[in-house]
Design a protein that fits this description.
two-stranded antiparallel ribbon; 377 residues; 2% strand; 70% helix; mainly alpha
Length: 377
Amino acid sequence: MRRVAEQTALPESTGATGAISAGPPTPAAPSPAPDKPDAAVVRDALAVGVAVGLSGFAFGVTAAGSGLSLLQICALSLFVFTGASQFALVGALAAGGNPYTAAAGAFFLGVRNAFYGLRLSQLLVLPRALRPLAAHWVIDETTAVTVAQPTRRAARIGFTVTGLTLYVLWNLTTLGGCDGGRGAGRHRGLGPGRGQPRRLPRAARADAQEHHRTRHRRGRGAARADAAARSAGRCTGAAVRARRARRPLPDGTAQARSGDGLPREDDGDEGRTGLMNIWIAIGLTAVGCYLAKYAGLLVPAGVLERPLVRRMATLLPVALLAALTAQQTFGDGQHLVLDARAAGLAAAAIALILRAPFLVVVGAAVVVTAGVRALAG
């Protein structure tokens, strides 16, 4: 009887023999995300940081050509550190726009970083003491690298390496581009950092050369008369150009400005007021962009656990990055263009479809874009 009871009893759990379980099936635990080697994360982060950091040279050249001083340009890269907002502010100031309106437009471009901060707050889970420092690096590139990592450790490494590399290179290349832009201005006869033609020295040299050539042909008196007439003509032309360059300052007054349209310290009290307004605009842009970055990291963990907020934090950064990529690839002001940038994006997409390493994807985009531009130019 004892043997029969043992044979008729049901086992309590399934085993290797395939017996039926007495209770409901236990759901299988989700498999953890595969670890990514730290070296691979660093390599991908360096690729993005170097590729994007070199474009700071273009910002330096653009800002120097717009007439901003070296200190103003470096302050933008150091304290704003948001490429789209920096270009927007410089373009608006160079066009003669109101500095405060330009700062507002640059700030609204930087609001997208707040949504990046929501997602990075979930992935990084940074200590409260580190959030104010990490907020300055919440930008498009660091978000793209961090979101692509499978684990929290890899996300933190990718965020740190990308942010550090990009911050250092962006500021160094901005300084180099600023020097290059001012060197080109001096080559075209512009004053160093002034944006104004060197009229008086060049006029004096031209008068002396012409006086030397005509002295023996028509006599010293005729040569002096011709030189005086030419100097008067140059002064008249300079006065006409100065009158045309008169643009309204932010306070509504008119002040003669240099060829780039920006006020100078030597323009008088009104020029100094306009220069101070530009510095205030730079400060407002820096503070506004930083607060937008920091806002996303300040959201409490309980709010991030809500389903709606979680979906927004997951999907919005991807949508914003895709929109930014499309705008920078096919946009040129208010026009749609198809140029070398589209070829670089296509090369990166092909490499991504072929499951190439991230470094190869970035390299393909950079090489193809540079090659097509060289052939077209």
